[in-house]
Amino acid sequence: MHKEALETYGKIYRMNVLAGMKFVMIIDPDEIRKAFQHDGKFPKRRMLDMVKVYRNQNKNLYSSAGILIENGEKWYNTRVKVQQPMLKPQIVDKYIGKMHSVSEDFVARMKYLRDQNGEVPNYLNELYKWALESIGLITFNTRLGCLEANLTENSEPQRMITAVSNVFQVAAATELGPKFWLWYPKLTKNYKKLEKNSECIYDITTKYMEETKEKLKDKTANNAVDVGILETILQQDIDNREVVGFMCDLLAAGIDTTSHSTAAILYLLAKHQDRQEILHREIKTVLENNNYKITREVLDAMPYLKGCIQESMRLMPVVDGTQRYYDQDIVLSGYRIPAGTYVALLSGVAGKLADYFEQPDQFMPERWLPGAKKPHPYAHMPFGSGPRSCIGRRLAYQEMQLLLIKVLQNFKIEYHHDDIGMIFRFVNMPDKPLRFKFVDRK
Ligand code: HEM
After folding, report:
1. What is the pLDDT of residue 180?
2. What is the predicted pLDDT for the residue at 219?
3. What pLDDT, on a 0 to 100 scale, did the predictor assign at position 19?
4. Would you state the pLDDT for residue 222?
5. Residue 127 confidence (pLDDT)
6. Where do the annotations place heme binding (predicted)?
7. Would you state the pLDDT for residue 172?
8. Ligand 1-lining residues (CB < 6 angstroms)
9. Cα 214 to Cα 195: distance, rounded to the nearest angstrom
10. pLDDT value for 20
11. What's the domain range around 60?
């Protein structure tokens, strides 16, 4: 979509993307930088209109529309409370052990599910379960059990998997199509589906939040200080509705993004066996040198792994950028953009241009190694920028690192089918089934 427009109009153009919503697209990283400079204290974005309607209709359950949707003071009030626990390295590092166990279970499940061709049927769905199980370590403060064999329809993990997937479907359907439903939202099928599935997510999340609060009381009594993200948030003066709403938002933002990104990395490694071998060697050496213990130091000692993740997010990004609108007119590339206009800041598109990356179509994790020439910082920013940037980025990175280590330790990844690209479905997703062949490593 952007490629043709870019060739016709250049690095700034206006487009009617969604019915009634005109966007100005910005692809020039210098102009993206300028746009971010207008963020101020309360950067504004518009998204997930139906979820906003639903939450505003249910103020007994939700104190606001949530961190993804709210703007201004309401957004800020949540962000300041959750920012530190979500991004503080010492707190995020505490999840390394647990996330590593999730990856171990995932690989065991892959071995169990592999067919005679070495392929795992419906592999993307398995990645969704892995991502939900991983994020569940934060939102439910426990293992939910998504990777267990033979989940029944009625089991808690299966109900959660179905509910999260249904909410995504509604979000994608209502966000992308014409928004006629805004006139009568509660009468639509999508709203009813959203309502039913949100209630399921809300109930399960609340149950675990209450359990954590109880445990926290004991811990306080015993003066224990080793607390995780949910506990750190709960220890503040915060409305329960705000906590549950935030946890539901983490589930909304943290599953498709990490699972689709991981799918892209596995695919690019399968297509570039030479790079996969370099990565495998790095993982093997670092683990051997550290008695197979996985720690922050071990993750930091794997620059090639980091390079593979960065390079995959450049070549096959799950989001092409982010979006803002401003209270005042701004000027970009010499054009005056009136206040209130939606501006798409498309660093994901810039990242594939020869203006900013040599041989942009090539998968070259080496470009991200220490000492390599630094790219334009606004030509690759998969997690956005500034005070509203992705609050889950540290967790996402850690999750992906741990999964890749485990998968590469166990398997050589091959792919023998038609090339896979990304299609836009609210976030970008693989356009073909992930028919990887997983060959046991000796
Ligand atoms: C590869 C994985 C991911 C990518 C590429 C990604 C990307 C993004 C981007 C581009 C934004 C908008 C930033 C901006 O407007 O400047 C964002 C926001 C957000 N992300 Fe992520 N994300 C990922 C994983 C996660 C995970 C795992 C979580 C939860 C644990 C998460 C939670 C959020 C939240 C809550 C926001 C809204 C922040 C706010 O508005 O204050 N993300 N993410």
Report:
1. 84
2. 74
3. 58
4. 62
5. 97
6. 390
7. 85
8. 45, 67-68, 79, 135, 249-250, 253-254, 257-258, 261, 318-319, 322, 382-385, 388-392, 395-396
9. 28
10. 62
11. 49-290+394-409
Task: Count CB-CB contacts under 10 A for residue 125.
Answer: 14
pLDDT of the residue at 304: 98
For residue 261, give the ligand 1 atom closest to its CA. Answer: 1
Q: How far is the CA of 318 from the centre of ligand 1 (A)?
A: 11
Instruction: Say whether pTM exceeds 0.85.
Output: yes
CATH code of the domain in which 273 resides: 1.10.630.10
199 in a structural domain: yes
Chain segment 221-233, per-residue pLDDT in tens = 665 556 899 999 9
Give, as one character, the DSSP assignment of residue 313.
H
Contact 322, 345 (CB under 8 A): yes
The closest alpha carbon to 185, from 56, 327, 5, 331, belongs to 56
Distance from C-alpha of 36 to C-alpha of 33, rounded to nearest angstrom: 5
Amino acid code (one letter) for 25: M
Q: Residue 16 domain-assigned?
A: no
Are the beta carbons of 354 and 360 closer than 8 angstroms?
yes
Question: Whose C-alpha lies nearest to ligand 1, atom 20?
Answer: 390
The residue ranges of the chain whose pLDDT is under 50 are none
CB 316 within 8 A of CB 268: yes
Q: What is the pLDDT of residue 199?
A: 97
Structural domain contains residue 70: yes
| Ligand 1 pocket mutation pick from 383, 404, 427, 428 by most atoms within 8 angstroms of CB | 383
The reported pLDDT for the residue numbered 7 is 85
Substitution candidate for ligand 1 out of 390, 427, 429 with most atoms within 8 A of CB: 390
Q: What is the pLDDT of residues 323-336, one digit of tens each?
A: 999 999 999 999 99
3-class DSSP string for 186-254: HHCHHHHHHHHHHHHHHHHHHHHHHHHHHHHHHHHHCCCCCCCHHHHHHCCCCCHHHHHHHHHHHHHHC
Residue 145 belongs to a domain: yes
**Domains of the chain: total:** 1
For ligand 1, atom 23, which residue shows the shortest CA distance?
Answer: 257
